Structure formats: C-alpha cells, structure tokens
Amino acid sequence: MAIFDLHHPWLFVFGVLGNIISIFVFLAPLPAFRRICKEKSTMGFQSLPYVVALFSSMLWMYYAFIKKNAILLVSINSFGCIVETIYISIFILYASKKARRQTVKLLVGLIGVLYTLIFVATLFPLNGALRVQVVGWICVTVAVLVFAAPLSIVFQVVRTKSVEFMPFTLSFFLTLSAIMWFGYGLLQKDLCIALPNVLGFFLGMIQMLLYAMYRNVKPTADLEKKVPEHVITMVAVGNSEQIHPVKSEDMINKLDDVAADQPSDEENNVNPPAAEPLPPVANDHENEERACGKVAKVNVPQPIETPVLVVCAA
Can you give the pLDDT at residue 106? Predict the structure, then answer.
C-alpha cells in the first residue's frame, strides 16, 4: 500500500508511533478494571467514557475504510474497538441492575441507533470524495467532544488545587498521541485527522502545566472532607436479636422521653432502695454498650468520586 511507500517515510513513522502511544492510552484503565474484577463490583465507576470511546473508534474505522490507504488508522481503532468492548463487557458483568440498564441504553442509543444512522445515511446516498468528507467532519465533531470531556477534570483541579484525578502519565501520553496523529494528518494532508489533535495537544499541555503547578500543593479543606465518615449507632432493642440503626440524637431524645415518663419514687410512695456500692468506672465504650442494650459504632465511608477517562485514537 502507499502508506508503506518509501516516499512517505515520516508518514509511516508518525503512524506507527501514534499506534504505539495510543495503545498505552487505551490500556490506561486496566488497573481500574482489574480492581473491578477483584472486588466483583463497579464501585461507582461509570460506563459512559468507554461507550463513547467505542463509538469514536468505530467511526474512525469507518472513515479509514472509505478513505483508503489508511491502514495504520484502521489498526489502532480496531485495537480500540476490541479493548473497549472488553471493558464494557466486564462493566456489565459486575454492574448493578441500574448501572447495567443504563449501559445497555447507552449502547443501543450510540452504537445501535446513532452509528447505524450515520452509516446508512452516508453509505448509500453519498459516494466518492463527498462521502469521505462528510464522514470525516462527523469524526471531527465527535473527536472534539471526546477531547473536551476532560475539561471538567481541569476545572476540578483549578478549584480544589489537587491533581488526584488527573494523573501525569495519562496526560503525557494523550499529548504525545495528539502530536503523532497531528503529524500523520498533516503529512497526509488530511484536515479531519490533524484538526482535532490540535485541541488534544493544547488540552494535554494545559493538564501537564496544572500538574506542575499543583502537584505539591496540599488539597483544600473541601477536598479533604470529600470522603466523610458517617457514624451509625446500632441499637439492640430489648432482648431480641434484631439490631436497628438509629441516629445518636434520636436515641438520646428517646432515652430522655422514657426517663420523663417513668414515675418517681416519691409518687409511687416507694422507699428508695438502699445505696449500693458504685460499680467500677467504665470506659466510654462500655457505657455505650450499656445504653439501651448493645451499642456499636460503624463507620460507613461514602463512595469515592472516580475520574472519568475518555480516549481518542485519532
């Protein structure tokens, strides 16, 4: 093919390097999915980034096939389709019923409806260069949206002065990937490939600059409190084995009401019992256990906010 022609050595170099770097970008979520498999739970992760990445890879594959002489563009997006399909399958396997339904709806909406509509609307009515141009600009629109998605993370970094959800390695590889595919599109004189990667390059540079600015900055108080611990008091009512969670304030109010309702010794004309020796002083934990039966404190951490990852190969 012309892509391997010796008259285009730099085109081949940029395409191969773009493939290699994009593979690292596609494999970036692997630690998260290994954790999902280990915990057998999606742990609050969202499937939207991976469904969008699959949709984007399928569009670029379609564009590469109708454009021709773009085997390196086909290869990386084929890899992306396979990897994203595996990610989505793992997500559906371990997701809750609600998250599974949402993922299926996304797949039906983006892949089953929108992609099919684009494919049918451009394959049959259009032909030749016009079809390539229309599909190419659709890919540009989707790529711009994909590259713009991490802007929310950028705003979060500026607001919290924390780079916890913006790892430097991912930003670095996204920037390198944008450079390689920009060079590939420029040498091939393909504006649809080169243009969105200009945005990807500037976004990656902004992310790395913010990382350099805030990597040693202590997170703000709001970020430190983002995972509060909620104390739930478990009360065993009476002699039953059932344990019911109640709020500490409600338990105290209930004890006060019970004490107020009980008649005093003078009202019942009952002689007060003889003073008994005081028991040994108990610690706070024992006092809590004596109040209304058995008392236990359980720390329930809130779900940790997870970063959103969207990748684009071209």
Answer: 93
Closest CA to 306 of 90, 110, 29, 39: 29
Which contacts (CB < 8 Å, 24+ apart) does range 253-256 have? 255/291, 255/292
Q: What's the pLDDT score for residue 240? A: 39
Which pLDDT does position 124 carry in this prediction? 84
Distance of alpha carbon 99 from alpha carbon 301, whole angstroms: 21
Which segments in the chain show pLDDT lower than 50? 1-6, 221-244, 246-248, 265-267, 269-270, 272, 275, 279, 281-312
CA distance 24 to 147: 17
In a 13 Å sphere around the CA of 123, the CA atoms on its Cβ side amount to: 10
pLDDT digits (tens, 9 = 90+) for 73-94: 999 999 999 999 999 999 999 9
Strand 243-246 and strand 295-301: pairing?
unpaired
Alpha helices in 95-167, H assignment, sequence order: 97-106, 116-123, 128-148, 151-160
Structure tokens at 66: 């109708």
**Which tens digits make up the pLDDT trace of 17-52?**
999 999 999 998 899 899 999 999 988 888 888 999
User: Any residues with CB less than 8 A from the CB of 174 and at least 6 apart, and which?
Assistant: 25, 200, 203, 204, 207, 311
- Residue from 242, 244, 264 nearest 254 by CA: 244
Q: List the helix and strand counts (H, then E) for the chain.
A: 13, 3
Place of tokens 């390097």: 17
The distance of Cα 228 from the centroid of its chain, to the nearest Å, equals 20
73 neighbors 64 (Cβ within 8 angstroms): yes
Asked if 180 contacts 18 with a C-beta cutoff of 8 angstroms, the reply is yes
Q: Are 294 and 236 in contact (CB under 8 A)?
A: yes
